[in-house]
What we know:
- The protein has a single domain, classed as Vaccinia Virus protein VP39 (Rossmann fold, 3-Layer(aba) Sandwich), CATH 3.40.50.
- Helices cover 37% and strands 25% of the residues.
- By secondary structure, the protein is of the alpha/beta class.
- The protein contains six helices and seven strands, in the order αβαβαβαβαβαββ.
- α1 runs parallel beside α2.
- The protein has a seven-stranded mixed β-sheet, sandwiched between helices.
Amino acid sequence: MSPGTGAALGMLAATVDAKAVAEIGTGTGVSGIHLLHGMRSDGVLTTVDPEPERQQFARTAFRAAGFAGNRARFIPGRALDVLPRLADGGYDLVFCDGDRTEVLDYLAESLRLLRPGGLVCFEGVFADGRTVDSGPQPAEVLRLRELLRAIRESQDLVPSLLPVGDGLLCAVKR
């Protein structure tokens, strides 16, 4: 994640006064730290990743960044298995940085999870410039194009594509 993307995530979390954030793809914890910095001081980040080792690394990074252990809830598992167990309308922001071939499913789950006025964000939608390249593309790029189209055409969302990092697609749920 680029510093610009991280800064934008923190600002967006602050903008929606986020108390509850769901993150798809814990990674090494970089995005989680940015989200936590922007969230309310009593906010909780729920982060999902299929690799428990990454979550342990992120847990250590959160602690090193000064966040109390109760500020993050780590759920190991595949996002599409875990997300259905999370509360409808219980989240202020959903950040998606998981398997790009599943982005349309992440969008559907995010719409269920978000409160009205909540925000969904997808990292890496430029796919290193491949989403606008006219040549043949792999499935993940085709899914990103479908995601861009679905969000643009949705009557339930107000979208914006931020040109930070490798593209941060954001949309507010009406």
